[in-house]
Every structure is written in structure tokens, then in C-alpha cells.
Amino acid sequence: xxxxxxxxxxxxxxxxxxxxxxxxxxxxxxxxxxxxxxxxxxxxxxxxxxxxxxxxxxxxxxxxxxxxxxxxxxxxxxxxxxxxxxxxxxxxxxxxxxxxxxxxxxxxxxxxxxxxxxxxxxxxxxxxxxxxxxxxxxxxxxxxxxxxxxxxxxxxxxxxxxxxxxxxxxxxxxxxxxxxxxxxxxxxxxxxxxxxxxxxxxxxxxxxxxxxxxxxxxxxxxxxxxxxxxxxxxxxx
Length: 237
Ligand SMILES: Nc1ncnc2c1ncn2[C@@H]1O[C@H](COP(=O)(O)OP(=O)(O)OP(=O)(O)O)[C@@H](O)[C@H]1O
Ligand SMILES: [Mg+2]
Hints:
Blueprint (H helix, E strand, L loop, with lengths): L9 E14 L2 E14 L3 E5 L6 H8 L7 E6 L2 E2 L5 H11 E4 L11 H11 L4 H14 L15 H13 L5 E5 L7 H17 L3 E5 L3 H5 L3 E6 L2 E6 L4
Parallel strand pairs: 3-8, 3-9, 6-7, 7-8
Antiparallel strand pairs: 1-2, 1-4, 4-5, 9-10
Helix pairs in contact: 3-4, 3-5, 4-5, 5-6
Bound molecules: adenosine-5'-triphosphate and magnesium ion.
The site of magnesium ion (MG) has 2 residues, from helix 1.
């Protein structure tokens, strides 16, 4: 028998990623030669000053934007080389997003919002409803399934957004200041919920936060400055 010494496949691997924007002939490098490797199931906090490149990094990992140079591998797939159509499908099936504002669809109930990624990819029927209901239970909102977003508090809307992000059982959950609009106690509760759900589903999670205290509760961390990753804990650079 030959021992299998192949390294564990990273959930996310960036190699030499640069992202430049040109605005009125001014070139801004939002990311400069970023390389990092995040193992499957890690929970990584990203911190750094405003303008450091945190959201750009998340957008690039989330296939919402493409690098100017370098490669992005997610679960062994080089997403920088996929066509736009394949990228959209990949994003819907493999990635979950939570942003600072929940971006729920106002005319749909909490339950319907949670099911939305499934509707987009053609997953329908009572199985989908049951799954959405289970996820709403998991975020403590089973009793709010038929409320529309305007009938929910900010923290509740954010919990619906988390349930929606998990509906497709994504390999990677990307959260950009998900608790930025919430009070301290609600922030802590939402962060606990994210960490707990990610651990239960073996989801890799990357969470951008300005809150140092929140960041320090995460097992892995990276600090960004001027488009570069300054340091990493639990993340190979
Ligand atoms: N679409 C764009 N066009 C031009 N420049 C951009 C664009 N997006 C971001 N930038 C620039 O890239 C840099 C990094 O922006 P980014 O949004 O990634 O920062 P951030 O770390 O998320 O900041 P914040 O904490 O304020 O959200 C900034 O200097 C920003 O002005
Ligand atoms: Mg940002």
C-alpha cells in the first residue's frame, strides 16, 4: 500500500491575486499580489482599515468580481476561468452570502426569502419548504416564517438572510460586516449563530468585521492593509 500523502484540498486558495480598478485614468490597486490558503471548515475573520481591500477580497472569492491577475480556486475549481454562465450556477450552488444589510425581497415572507436560492436553481416543492422551515427554526425564527421583512427587526432580518445563505448548503459562506448594523448583544448572538451553523455543516466561513472583539472570537484571522494581507492566524499565506 502506498500511503496517501496528498495534502488536504484547501477550500479556498488564492495565488498572486491582484485587483486593479481604473477610474478616470487613475489606477487603484484594491488587492496587491494576495496569496492565501484556507482549509475546509475554517472560520476566518478579516479585519483592516476602511479601504484596505476586505470587500474586494470577499467579492473576488465570491466570484462577484474577477481578479486582474492571479488565480482563485474554490474546492479545487479555478473559478477565475469559468464562463459567466457557469460562474452564476457555481455561485448559487456553492457559495452563500450575508451582507451588512439583509437585502431580503420585501414582497416575500421570511420562508419564501429563505427558499429563494432554491427557486433560482429549480429546487421547489414541499421538500424545499420543509428545509426552509427547518433553517428558520435553526436561526430561532420558526414563529416568524410568514412575516414579511418590514414586519421583522433588523437582527431578525439578518437571521433570515443567514438562513437564506445556508439554503443550498454552500461550501463557503461569505459575510461582509453582517453585524455592522446591529447592537452589541445582537451582534454577538448572530456571530455565535454563524459559527455554530458553519461548524455543524462543515462550511468554510469568511467574515469581514470592523469589530476587534468579534474578530478575536474567531479561530482564524487575517489582517489587511493597502490591498495586502499583513498577517494570518490559522491561514497559510
Ligand atoms: N468598483 C471600484 N472602482 C474603483 N475603486 C474601487 C472599487 N471598489 C473598491 N475600490 C477601491 O479599492 C479599495 C479597497 O476597497 P474595499 O471596498 O475592498 O475596502 P474595504 O476594506 O472593504 O473598506 P470598508 O471597511 O470601508 O468597507 C478602496 O481604495 C476603494 O476605493
Ligand atoms: Mg468593505
